[in-house]
Amino acid sequence: MSTSMYAGTTTAGRPEFERVPVDASGIGAVEQPLTLWERLSNNTAVRRIALLVVLAVIWEVYARFLSNPLLFPSFSDTLQTFWRDLMRGTLISRTFTSLQVLVLGYGAGLLLAATFTTLAVSTRIGTDLLSTLTAMFNPLPAIAILPLALIWFGLGMPSLIFVIIHSVLWAVALNTYTGFRSVPETLRMSGRNYGLGGIRYVMLILIPAAFPSILAGLKIGWAFAWRTLIAAELVFGVSSRSGGLGWYIFEARAELRTSQVFAGLLAVILIGLFVESVIFRAIERRTVQRWGMER
């Protein structure tokens, strides 16, 4: 029986817990290179592309089975129409028109959200004002105020910008304010101990700590703005002479060109995927994931 000495006393060993080291040289390499299938299955982009391909195949098969292009065109017909209008420049000009309005409305909404949030963080009156306005207007659908926008601003870009601001403002302001309030007190005290104050305190402590909530608000605001813009354009476009993607879809529906309707919807979806998967994804990688706030 093995014994050991500790603090001048002798203790008995526990042979039931003692194991003889195993010779691992005969097991082989512990690290095995991944196979091609394992590397592909672990790639998120590849998995999503494969899922899109499966959905496209289901779409094509169902459309051919239905055999009614006026009701449900096939995926190949939609792609041909999409490519044809893309080469003619129709889709590009309509997309540019929609994005131009979206950028103006989204930017104005972010500016107003920053103003309201600054007031809410700085003063009690600002907090009460933001809470009251958010409770009043956040549940109100942006498309519901479109008639009021038409009365005030008439047919054209200002009406669209007005409803986009409404769809962006409350979501972004509410998320940003919630993010600021959720910053841990320990982190705030650390910033004060380093002598930070004013704009440096906000830029170096509050905004980085609250950035997951801010980014979530930006994504929600973008989605609201994009769907609101397309819905509003379905009503009257941008002006009497030109319109965006929503008006492109509306015109195609009026002329019973169903494949063109699907091509317009496909353009809306592709732009949404690009913004979500490329722009916001890049921001996430460079900020919250790099800072260890998100996996």
What is the strand and helix layout of this fold?
Layout: E1 3-6, E2 9-12, H1 36-41, H2 44-66, H3 75-88, H4 90-122, H5 124-137, H6 146-153, H7 157-181, H8 185-193, H9 198-236, H10 245-254, H11 258-286
Antiparallel strand pairs: 1-2
Helix pairs in contact: 3-11, 4-5, 4-7, 4-9, 4-10, 5-7, 6-7, 7-9, 8-9, 9-10, 9-11, 10-11
Describe this structure in words.
This protein is 71% helix and 3% strand. The protein is mostly helical. It has a two-stranded antiparallel ribbon. The chain is flat, with a radius of gyration of 29 Å. It starts with a strand and ends in a 9-residue tail after the last helix.
Short summary:
This protein has 295 residues and is mainly alpha-helical. The protein is 71% helix and 3% strand.
* N→C terminal distance: 51 Å
Low-pLDDT residue spans: 1-7
**Total strands:** 2
How many helices does DSSP assign? 11
- Report the helical percentage: over 70%
Which of globular, elongated, flat, extended, rod-shaped describes the shape? flat
The major pleated sheet works out as: 2 strands, antiparallel
Strand order of the largest sheet: 1-2
SSE sequence, one letter per element:
EEHHHHHHHHHHH
Gyration radius (Cα, Å) is: 29 Å
Q: Give the amount of beta strand, in percent.
A: under 5%
Structural class: mainly alpha
The residue-averaged pLDDT reads 85
